[in-house]
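Service request form, structural biology core

Requester: graduate student, group of Dr. S.
Request type: structure prediction, single chain
Budget code: on file
Notes: please return the result as structure tokens.

Sequence provided:
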Amino acid sequence: MDKIKAVSYCRVANADDWVMQRQSEVIERYAESEGFLITDCYCDNGKSGITLDRPGFNSLMSDIRNGNVKFVIAKDASRIARGYHLLNDLIDEVESYGVTLITVNDGNIGVMTKEMNAFLQAYLALSK
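Core staff response, request fulfilled:
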């Protein structure tokens, strides 16, 4: 059976090659077990997740916008973006290109974030 092509994304705020390697290994093991083939890795070593303006992430988004990526796998959602609203907006954008964000620890975060958003909306409506 053919494997599904995906790319990986790794990020750590404080530059640490060992941590970056560990993230990459975790993603590779997950990809192998779930039938994905990692074709490229985008990395930001020593870059904060509170902004999306990061070299590796910018390259990833360029490839997404050009239709070169369909699945992105990261270790967890915080590796992609710090902050619920930033992550939610990002998910909306990448999904508009038909891309699925998957994390080893959280699964399909697009689905998870939409469910969290629906829950928060309902909670806030009931709180009024």
